[in-house]
Amino acid sequence: MDVDLEIGGTDQTFNMLMGRELQKKIRNREKYVLTMKMILGTDGHTMSKSSGNCVWLTDTPQDIYGKLMRLPDELIPDYFEVFTAYTTFEIKKIKTELQKPDINPMTYKKKLAFEITSQLHRKKLADEAQREFEKVVQEKAIPHNARQVELLKSQWKIVDLIMRFSLAASNSEAKRLIRQGGVLLGNRKVTNPQEIIKIEKDTVLKVGKRNFLKIRVI
Fold first, then answer.
1. Is 50 inside a domain boundary?
2. H or E segment at 184?
3. Which reactions fall under this protein's catalytic activity (predicted)?
4. Do 89 and 80 contact (CB within 8 A), yes or no?
């Protein structure tokens, strides 16, 4: 109750104003309220921990850059406005450019991702994150630092293999990625969550766009 200023999204305006009245009545003290534009998560929905659509201050540069590159195109100007030092004129220009049919939104999305990653980490690390994204996502290459594991058995239920090496946050996410065609074993797409796979030689398991696992059976 003893605060001078409370800052929150526009969705919390009522709650903050009620707190202002309570503080005035109970503490006989004024409290100012500052509302900010409500920013949606990286999937275009309300931010929440359970939805996995947030960028955390503790995220690695690669994770921050990758998450922001999944941002819906229509949210690019809002993120520039709230999270960067771009001027109103510059943001207005970005909005205009994004309306043009010959402009690829990824150009501005990469600028945004680089800008925010640079703020939270060093520019050098933002450069590395951008190069890694371009290599892995755009050029479909295997990252140089992909994890390597050796397995004693060659047959695995695909979901169990994914979860064994924490390539998905949960069983349900692993199954969703499989059904959506986001899991590759070598060059083969695995689409059945119940499938028992057999690994007969050195291969690479790809889960989602950025999770790679180099596998060797011994």
1. no
2. strand 183-185
3. tRNA(Tyr) + L-tyrosine + ATP = L-tyrosyl-tRNA(Tyr) + AMP + diphosphate + H(+)
4. no
